[in-house]
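[09:14] KT: can someone run the structure on this one? pasting the chain below
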Amino acid sequence: MADQEPAAGSNGSGNVENEAQVSVLAQYVKDLSVENPSAPQVYSWQVQPQLAPHAVSWYRAHPDEMQRDYSWCRDNPGIHDPNCAAAAEAKLQADFDAFVKAPR
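[09:31] RB: done, structure tokens below
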């Protein structure tokens, strides 16, 4: 009897038809937390936000600063800074103006 193996998927009773079937429909997790050892540094600003954001017209008058801020904002997409939106709009307007003024 020790050399006999039970049927596959059974509990060893040998009677497969009378076995109860159990399935898990959902699993409850009471406390799920993720540890991050460098949490204080992850959530800190990379640069100090400016108190007064620049307007689109300011960026149009200062193309070097527009290109610098636009490039920085593209490299840091998770930071929502009003200067990023203004620099992007100013770049869009400048590119459109350059397209319109281009020789045909």
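[09:33] KT: thanks! The radius of gyration is 32 Å.
[09:34] RB: yep, looked fine to me
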